[in-house]
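Dear Dr. H.,

I hope your travels went smoothly. While you were away I took the liberty of generating a structure for the chain from your last submission, since the lab meeting agenda had it listed for discussion. I wanted you to have the full record in hand beforehand rather than looking at slides cold. The sequence, exactly as received, is reproduced here:
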Amino acid sequence: SITLLKNEDAVLPVTKEKYKKVAIIGEFAIAPRFQGNGSSEVKPTRIDNALDIIKAEYGDEVQISFAQGYNLTDDEDFSLIEEAAQVAAEADIALVFAGLPLHYESEGVDRTHIDMPASHNKLISELAAVQPNTVVVLTNGSAVAMPWANEVTGIVEAWLGGQAGAGGVSDVLFGKVNPSGKLAETFPVKLEDTPA
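The corresponding predicted structure, in token form, is as follows:
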């Protein structure tokens, strides 16, 4: 189901021939949102995270750095962006894990907007300003607005991949697997583009 939405200048896949230093940015890389909220919740036997898997599977090939970038419990906390921008600037490529926190989507609750948290959007724009090879990996259960879409080089829609989803995302980013998913719904540029 992982869908490649943008891949300018063949920024992906990440290979040791193209990139020596890879920055992993975003709390979703260490605390993934892997399922929906409500009656779909299950108790996982374990939860994989992208940072650990990328380090384990590709750490011998590339140098990996990490920055949290945002706080999943505070949408307006911008205090972690400066450090993340520095980490991204010192790398050859930045993989930014961002999207919709659990409290944004739930069974029985309609969303009043299609925006990601302000901290996620600001982080992505700030990173794109200092790192030309910025790839956004989206974690979300439904469409989101991407005001930074023209600023970044790559966008990967990873959806909610389940307890082992991080391994699938890592395999796509590093070229083991082709991201052959297709969008099952339209992503409006902004909410106002949707007549309903």
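Two observations you may find useful: The mean pLDDT is 94. The helical segments are 50-58, 81-89, 118-130, 165-173.

With kind regards,
E. W.
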